[in-house]
Amino acid sequence: MQTTIAPERRARIAALGYDYAAEPHERLTACNLCGGSLLVTLTRRDRYGYPAQTSACAGCGLVFLNPRMTAHAYGRFYDGIYRPLVSAFHGRLIDAQTIQGEQQEYAVDRANMVRPFLAGVGLRTMLDIGGSTGVVAGHFASEFGLRGTLIDPAPLEVEHARALGLDTITGLVEEHDFQGQRYDLVLICQTIDHLLDVGGTLRRVRDLLTDRGLLFVDIVDFRAAYLRNWSVEDATKIDHPYYLTQETVQAYLRRAGLAVVAVDYAADHLHVSYLCRPAAPEPAALPDPAGVTAFFKEARYVQNAPRPQ
Ligand SMILES: [Zn+2]
Q1: What distance in Å separates the CA atoms of residue 18 and residue 138, rounded to the nearest whole number?
Q2: Whether the model pTM is above 0.85
């Protein structure tokens, strides 16, 4: 379905004066999941109205922004534009302070999911990747008696996390030298869709896990996002370079050597969480081809059929 952005929302976003098109971009020629080079242009604008295109890999169905901003441009984006943009979209202030309440709720909910798998295992150390202000890592650390480390690129949010008693690293997991340090629990909470290299990061994380270690990761399920909006465009946004589905994330995990031990549909019906343990990598793992065909048909249907009543 063709949707339009409400005039008030459009005006709030325009008032930010952010010129997305003028930022430096790079065009991707290969799929980050399967390496395929046949890419289908899926959409031409995002939910904010920016001229951000997504591609879908014809081979595996992975969806990603393409072209997308360079790492440097994303650095600037997170340092001042991201939170105001999300605030303008929703029409209310969303910042490091206001997210604390919902982060706490999220932390309690996710801790309940993993608790049965952590009991009696004797885990001691935890790394939270992209952990923002540390609400989630702080809750996990106290709930499960873990020594928590948080890595995030936003200096102000890292400061909050340090005040909660967490060890902190200001930076990116893709670039930081961990000097052989490994962790019993790694969290990638509401973060994987923001990464620039999902495959590389998951392989890195696999190496950061101890033999008894566990990874918690969750995705915004792209299919859930476009079905609820009945718009593929409105399920895309410049803050998410990747749009994962249950099929693509599971292929990513298998390739990296991460075996899923638990799956959980969040109460919001949008996020899907995975708890994984180290396993032998399956570098050729792919989504089922029938599922890829069904995905393209469904996205096309949503783009053209009337919203169901
Ligand atoms: Zn692919």
Answers
A1: 34
A2: yes
